[in-house]
Amino acid sequence: MLKIAYHSLYVYPLPEKHRFPMEKYELLPKQLLHEGTCVAENFFESKMPSEEDILAVHTKEYFESLVNLTIDSRAARKIGFPLSEALIDRELRIAQGTIEGSEHALKYGVAFNIAGGTHHAYTNRGEGFCMLNDQAIASKYLQNNGLANKILIVDLDVHQGNGTAEIFLNDDSVFTFSMHGAGNYPFNKEKSDLDIAIPDGSGDEVYLQKLKETLPKLVEEQKPGFIFYLAGVDILETDKLGRLNCTIEGCKERDRFVLQLCKDLHIPVQVSMGGGYSPEIKTIIEAHANTFRMAQKIFF
């Protein structure tokens, strides 16, 4: 059964300028239920993570400044959200949702977090609306509990996974692969184990060709026992921040290729949703929903 981490605090009171596209976290599960892709049993509410699991990735000083809301104003501005207890609760549950999702993926082959993909969170700071790096935390959880050895993070959000790259810079047990927009945020990029920068305006053909010639070889070389997939839909031509000009069908084919590869090679995969900033919310929901539809089709 497809298991999907979800919590009602994914949307909480925010100033108007921040509310969109946060709405997608409430609308996406409703759409999946409405169309019959998912049933209520597919969803689970995550618990709170242990401090030990967070501190396997983030520094104690940074973590305590978040939970105590004592982070300095300059660091808070880099994060981008007005900080609150509800926001920190949300971020903690997102991290735990990815941890629990990774356990479900070991059992069922694939699992999702309706949010997550907080790849701009560094060991000691947050930025770009990311505070705790969910897939990094879950990676170390699996390793520290003897559930996986070599891990591959496949980050296909349009923005480079700079925080993830920094976290695992000197850790050969986690291979970081980021395929992102060359001219996009962050403008001062970190060094992933493999970075592929796609030129603005490339479109489906260039994007998919590069992915399909790269990922199978990478998996063969690294032989991961677990894959984390960040499935941002900000690669779309409609996306306000994307610039890559991929179509809905191209984005869907990307998901099919990644998930089918994991299924064929019997590698468990946890999927976090990442970004999506098209002007119309229905476009964002459709693109994200395709990832869930594809997982149901391929794995179940």
From TrEMBL:
One of its GO terms (biological process) is epigenetic regulation of gene expression. SUPFAM superfamilies: Arginase/deacetylase. One of its GO terms (molecular function) is hydrolase activity. Keywords: Hydrolase. The keyword Transmembrane does not apply. Pfam families: Hist_deacetyl. InterPro entries: HDAC_classIV (IPR044150), HDACs (IPR000286), His_deacetylse_dom (IPR023801), His_deacetylse_dom_sf (IPR037138), Ureohydrolase_dom_sf (IPR023696). Transmembrane segments: none annotated. CDD domains: HDAC_classIV. Residues 18-287 form the Histone deacetylase domain. Belongs to the histone deacetylase family. PANTHER family: HISTONE DEACETYLASE 12, HISTONE DEACETYLASE HDAC1-RELATED. This is Deacetylase, histone deacetylase/acetoin utilization protein. It comes from Aequorivita sublithincola (strain DSM 14238 / LMG 21431 / ACAM 643 / 9-3).
